[in-house]
Design a protein that fits this description.
Length: 99
């Protein structure tokens, strides 16, 4: 495992809800969000409400932890992606916060 500054064990990390483009896309917003997630995966657990116009995977949930582990050089990332069209709505955000 690559040495990371201020590494935090997975169970002790704070969980961050990120409202942005789907991290798997190639837009400028998605690219910057992906870089933030990868560079801080050793310090935070991430939940991405990933938006796109007429998202083909709308309603599906993806676990991106293995890909981020490989990219960040860590072993215990916790990254979830909830695909949605647009940026969701108030009910979607409430459900994610409750979860």
């Amino acid at each position: 495992m690559k040495e990371k500054f201020r590494y935090v064990k997975r169970e002790d990390r704070k969980k961050i809800l990120l409202l942005s483009d789907d991290l798997r896309l190639h837009s400028g917003v998605a690219t910057m969000a992906r870089e933030i997630v990868i560079q801080t995966a050793h310090h935070f657990n991430w939940v991405n409400l990933g938006g796109a116009i007429k998202h083909p995977d709308e309603g599906k949930v993806f676990d991106l932890s293995a890909d981020v582990n490989k990219e960040a050089g860590i072993e215990d990332a916790d990254i979830k992606l909830f695909a949605t069209s647009g940026y969701g709505n108030a009910d979607t955000v409430r459900k994610l916060i409750q979860t």
